[in-house]
Write a structure and sequence with these properties.
The strands form 3 sheets. This protein has a 5-stranded mixed β-sheet, with helices on both faces. A 3-stranded antiparallel β-sheet has the order 8-5-9. By secondary structure, it is an alpha/beta fold. Helix 3 crosses helix 11 (274-289). The chain is globular and about 65 Å long. The chain has helices at 7-19, 22-26, 54-70, 85-93, 108-115, 150-160, 174-186, 198-206, 217-225, 249-253, 274-289, 291-299, 311-331; strands spanning 43-47, 74-78, 101-106, 125-135, 137-141, 166-169, 191-194, 213-215, 229-234, 261-269. The two termini are 15 Å apart. The protein folds into 2 domains: 7-134 and 261-331, 3-Layer(aba) Sandwich (D-Maltodextrin-Binding Protein, domain 2); 137-253, D-Maltodextrin-Binding Protein, domain 2. Residues 5-28 have low confidence and may be disordered.
């Protein structure tokens, strides 16, 4: 699936949030009544990737603001394993259906549903509140041998010495798809080193244990400021407004479909009672509409999408993303028509 995260979308996210009425942005009382007796305990925000990665960072920022607007306790819990499959499977098949467990998930859930071999689908979850979206950044170590020459130089090396240039990979998702596109376009061959998420891959890059890693802005911003890593390209059809002068992958490899990025949202098991889903959706929408949270997202290189302001619109968008990813899986031979 290609997620086109462009400068226009990022700027639209800022403008859309700023355009919300002051009352809607500042209110602490939700427009949906809280269901009787709910919640009776802190609500778990499940993150299926390790602490310190883009998903975890987003969840912990959102946690503060959803508590502010709901007046209730929310706790972030990392349920990791299988590069996200363990946590996604728990959410879809084992999580309590009383509203006390929500997932902070992303479009990677779509590929994990395909990997579940029919145990569950994305329709076993109800997608209730969009959080933010951003492109993927390709980085090298600032002290490594590929610190100069950019992505083109790295691809040339991977073509000249196939199987020797190490790239951090998260199996079964768009990290893997992006590596495949790089190889197809350039004739290169990488040594793919598996990790549970993007954060551990960036850590490995810092230790010169891989030569190329992919990260979201929140995962790399501190290392950029410390001059420890160098961004060499960004996914999407337009350059990132947060990484001036860094080219797109498409412009380097001469394609137009290397647009993998992340869209993050809140999901709950479909069997959660409707009144609890409505209250949870309102709580997270109020949090995302808070201008202070919008600013926090901006610092992380991600922005909300004002167009996805209802569960119905979000669910429709998720279905569209799933259809697009299935088309890619078929085209790449990973799935049958």
């Amino acid at each position: 699936m290609t997620i086109d995260i462009t400068r226009r979308h990022l700027i639209a996210g800022v403008a859309g949030a700023a355009a919300l009425p002051l009352a809607a942005r500042a209110q602490s009382r939700l427009p949906v009544p809280k269901p009787a007796g709910f919640p009776r305990e802190p609500i778990e925000m499940t993150v299926v990737y390790p602490a310190g990665g883009g998903m975890d960072i987003t969840a912990r920022v959102v946690q503060r603001f959803v508590e502010k607007h709901s007046g209730e306790r929310f706790l972030v819990n990392n349920r990791t394993g299988g590069a996200g499959l363990v946590g996604h499977t728990w959410l879809a098949t084992q999580a309590p259906t009383d509203g006390h467990a929500v997932g902070v998930i992303a479009n990677l859930v779509i590929s994990d549903a395909a990997r579940s071999q029919g145990r569950w689908t994305i329709n076993d979850l109800d997608h209730i509140a969009h959080l933010n979206a951003e492109p993927l950044n390709l980085c090298v170590n600032a002290e490594g041998q590929y610190r100069s020459g950019g992505l083109r130089g790295l691809l040339d090396a991977a073509r000249a010495r196939p199987g020797t240039i190490r790239v951090a990979n998260v199996v079964g998702g768009y990290y893997e798809y992006l590596i495949e596109q790089l190889e197809q376009a350039s004739g290169s061959r990488f040594l793919k080193v598996p990790f549970q998420g993007g954060g551990p891959g960036i850590t490995a890059l810092l230790g010169n244990n891989v030569d190329l890693a992919f990260g979201f802005f929140g995962e790399i911003s501190g290392h950029l400021a410390a001059n420890r890593i160098v961004p060499v390209a960004v996914t999407g059809r337009q350059p990132s407004p947060f990484l001036q002068g860094v080219p797109t992958v498409n412009s380097v490899i001469g394609r137009d479909d290397a647009n993998w990025g992340v869209s993050r949202w809140i999901a709950v098991p479909r069997a959660v009672p409707a009144d609890r889903k409505a209250w949870l959706a309102a709580a997270f929408r109020a949090a995302v509409a808070d201008p202070e949270l919008v600013e926090e997202f901006r610092k992380l290189g991600a922005m909300p999408d004002p167009a996805l302001d209802t569960p119905e619109k979000l669910n429709a968008a998720v279905q569209q993303m799933a259809e697009a990813e299935r088309a890619y899986l078929i085209a790449s031979g990973r799935a049958q028509r």
